[in-house]
Amino acid sequence: MWPRKNVVVAAGLLLATCLLAQAQVRSSTGWSVAGTITPSPCVLTLTGGGVADFGPLSTATVKAWPVKSDPARYSGIDANVSRSMNLSVSCTSSTRFALSFVDNRAGTMSGPAGQGYSYGLGGYAPPGEPVVNIGRYVVNFSNLYVGRSPGDSLSKFKAAFLADGAATPSSTWTQATGLDAVYLPAGKSLGFTADAFDTAPGALARVLGGLVFMFEPLKAVVDGATSDMSLDGSATITLIGL
Fold this sequence. Notes:
The protein is mainly beta. It has one domain (42-49, 72-241). 13% of the residues lie in helices and 35% in strands. It contains 3 helices and 12 strands. It has helices at 4-24, 59-63, 219-223, and strands at 42-46, 83-103, 118-120, 123-124, 132-133, 135-147, 155-156, 159-164, 174-176, 188-193, 203-217, 235-241. The strands form 2 sheets. Strands 1, 2, 3, 6, 7, 8, 9, 10, 11 and 12 form a 10-stranded antiparallel beta sheet that branches. The protein has a two-stranded antiparallel ribbon with strand order 4-5. The longest helix has 21 residues, at 4-24. It is elongated. It starts with a helix and ends with a strand. The model is unreliable at 4-19 (pLDDT under 50).
C-alpha cells in the first residue's frame, strides 16, 4: 500500500494530465465564398425557325434570271428573288456584344473573289457524276434598328464595325462601310452602335432588323442539271458578349 502522501501526489499528477489533455483539444471548421457574376443575359432569335425556304423552282425559271452581273451565274440578286426573316436581340440591360457568322458550307462556296459575304449553297451530285458546288447566297440586313436600353425607343444604327473571326474583348475593330455595313460577313463578327462617335460596338439592349436572303447558282450547273438540285445552305450566328 502506498503512503497517503504519495497517493495524493499521484492523483494530482493524474488530474493535471487530464486537464492538460482537455486544454489541447481543438475543433475547427471553415467557410467558402461562392457565387456567379454573369453578363446581362441576351437572347438572339430568328423568325420562321431560321429557314429561308425558296421552295421548288424549275430550271426554266432560274434560267430566266439575269446574268449581267456575272456571266458565270444566274443572279437571283438581279432578279430580286428573295426570302426574309427577322432577327432580334433582347438584353436585360445595356451590353456590348457582336454577332459572329460561320458558314457551315464554306467548302461549297462559289462566289466572286474578294466578297467576304458569300455563303455556300451545298453540293449537287448529277447521276453518275462527281459532286459539284451549286453556287453562293448572300444575306443582308434590312431596316436595322437598335436601342441603348430595354425601355428605349428604337432608332436606326449609326455605325457598324467588323472584326476577324469570333470577336473577343480585345478584337481590333474597323468601321464597316458600303455593302460591308449591311451584308452578313462569313467568318467575321459584326457589331453596331447607336452613337456616331463610337469606334467599336457600343452597349445596346435591343437590335431588330430583317434578314434578306438571295442566291446565285452557277450557270453551268443549272444548265447541266438532270435531277433535282437541293439547296443546302447552313450557317451559325453566335451572339458574343464583349
